[in-house]
Amino acid sequence: MAEGCELVYFDLRLVHDHFDRALVQDDDIDLKAYLDAYNELYKFFQLMGTVFGFVSSDLKQKIEVLIELMNKNEQCYITIKSMIEYEKESNILDKGDCTNGSRTLLRLHRGLDFIREFLRQLGELSDSDKTSSCCQDAYNKTLAKHHPWVIRKAAIVAMYAMPTREVLLKKVCGTDVQRNVDILPKMLEVTADVFNRTHNLYELHELHSLP
């Protein structure tokens, strides 16, 4: 690490707080708060290094696409509901060569399914347990369904190198391991609310099969 650089660790409390703020009225999701939470989750993948290379660079790119759309048209990208309605009414979703927020967010939504399932299983392990099996299981239940065979194979192989729960948590949380472990149940609860609301919005507008 370069001199003067301070390693920024992953903070589950920030994920909890941002996702909690994202739960706005009318069963909607505040887009900025959602992305703030996701930026914190992205740190987890960065700190894990090449093990999660199959997903981390893709997530970062999609976060940046959504931030750019928000900056260009703030009023239409306040919430997930306003984004979907605007893009449907503007026929943006019908243009295959057009970058749109609904398709981009759908990829993040699928990624969140994997993250929350992995963290849920991680919370049930003992410190000496290897994390590779629960990560593979979480991946197979979620993201694997949306990945081609080549990516699935590479991802599963990469996960074999994952450390024990104790080593993993120290790597991503630094000295604040217990603080993160303590907030994990509440974080998973609010993340489930965010995930379910988003899922329902996509279901309502029949957008789960966006290419």
Automatic annotation (TrEMBL):
Biological process according to GO: negative regulation of interleukin-1 beta production
Superkingdom, natural source: Eukaryota
Record domain Glycolipid transfer protein: where: 29-173
Single GO cellular component term: cytosol
A GO molecular function held by the record: ceramide 1-phosphate transfer activity
InterPro entries in the record: GLTP_sf (IPR036497), Glycolipid_transfer_prot_dom (IPR014830)
Family designation: Belongs to the GLTP family.
Protein name: Glycolipid transfer protein domain-containing protein 1
Organism expressing this protein natively: Eufriesea mexicana
Lineage: Eukaryota, Metazoa, Ecdysozoa, Arthropoda, Hexapoda
